[in-house]
Design a protein that fits this description.
Distance between the termini: 30 Å
Shape: elongated
Mean pLDDT: 79
Order of helices and strands: HHHEHE
Low-confidence stretches: 76-104
Amino acid sequence: MLRIYPVCLEMVRQVANLAIVVKQHDRDLCRQLQRSSASVVLNLAEGSAVRDGRRPVRYGDALGSALETRNLVVPSSPKREKGAEAECPDAPAKLAVRQDCALR
């Protein structure tokens, strides 16, 4: 098993907790968070199991899903819109959810 696998499992758990809060405000974004984070772990597992030339493809897919998840959940910054905290007061103070991302 890859050493990164347990780290990715923990990321899925953390995203699941955030998704509960996000779901109250945006169900589509919640589902996309859940799908993209789960895709990371699933593609890592599939890549580690294959023995042919598809391994780099699966790892590349996992990386793409990890980047998608990261871009759905971005660190808050001073440039964040005023009043954004009021929209989702239960969200962790260090996280902001991107509303402007393109959903698949």
